[in-house]
TrEMBL record:
Keyword list, A-Z: DNA damage, DNA repair, Endonuclease, Hydrolase, Nuclease
Family per similarity comment: Belongs to the Vsr family.
Region (Disordered): 22-44
Record GO terms (molecular function): endonuclease activity; hydrolase activity
CDD domains found in the cross-reference section: Vsr
GO terms classed as biological process: mismatch repair
Protein's recorded name: Very short patch repair endonuclease
């Protein structure tokens, strides 16, 4: 009987006392698109690869599932191989927010070697796969972080123009523009705009890339000054910023501008 009691005690401690809240595992309405959410949690799209063998790779995602009987959230790695969905149990997670649970599961997947980075192509000029991904992601418009921000702004009832010049006479385009309120929003990529947190010196062609990034930073500062001098409110959002907080800051700037009209 003592052995049986010990086993029950062990199982009892494993169970949670309450069912985790939905915010811990469900995607909320108006949240960032799934790809953006997964990229952020994994630390970048380049960190989401599963090696299939024969130099083949598949991009994976983390799925969170609530098991009500045990009141536990389990994380599973999912990817496609030869047209069929594959799945692997990663770990249990217990954070209060979905984003934190995704990030925890991705960290564990990396620690266990479940995922990897694809090797650089032989002809790549980038110093690492992360730098290459950042360079490829530098599209003129409709980047993942930009789409996520626009989605939240639109869901909140705000209407705006996309990828346009705040001042037609000045050849500077903003990602999101509120013409009437004179609010211009720029969503800056960490690599190309010299993010103080994530920008790292390139190892290949370092002088070339350093000069280009410095030039972009100088142009950003000049753009800010030109718009502010013309009576515009300028907001710059880093691609790594929390999209919900960024959307709230934009909404507050627009509301304030409307009060001042």
């Amino acid at each position: 009987m003592r052995g049986s009691d010990s086993l029950m005690d062990s199982v009892g401690r494993h169970w949670k006392e309450e069912v985790p809240p939905e915010r811990a595992y469900k995607r909320r309405a108006g949240a960032a698109p799934p790809t953006v959410e997964q990229d952020k949690a994994a630390g970048g799209r380049h960190r989401r690869w599963v090696a299939l063998g024969d130099n083949r790779y598949a991009r994976a995602s983390i799925s969170l599932r609530l098991y009500r009987r045990t009141r536990r959230i389990r994380a599973y790695l999912r990817w496609s191989k030869d047209g069929e969905t594959q799945e692997r149990y990663v770990c249990e997670v217990s954070q209060d927010w979905r984003g934190a649970n995704l990030a925890e599961a991705w960290r564990y997947a990396w620690e266990q070697g479940f995922v990897t980075e694809r090797p650089l192509p032989a002809d790549s000029k980038a110093s690492s796969i992360g730098v290459r991904v950042n360079m490829q992601a530098n599209r003129a418009r409709d980047t993942g972080p930009e789409l996520a921000l626009r989605s939240l702004l639109h869901a909140s009832g705000l209407r705006y123009r996309v990828d346009t010049r705040p001042i037609p006479e000045i050849r500077r385009r903003a990602d999101v523009v509120f013409p009437r309120e004179r609010v211009a929003v720029f969503v800056d990529g960490c690599f190309w705009h010299g993010c103080p947190l994530h920008s790292r010196p390139a190892k290949k062609n370092s002088e070339l890339w350093s000069a280009k990034i410095s030039g972009n930073m100088e142009r950003d500062a000049e753009t800010n000054a030109l718009l502010v001098a013309a009576g515009w409110t300028v907001l710059r959002v880093w691609e790594h910023d929390d999209v919900g907080a960024a959307a709230e800051a934009v909404a507050m700037a627009v509301a304030k501008a409307r009060q001042d009209l």
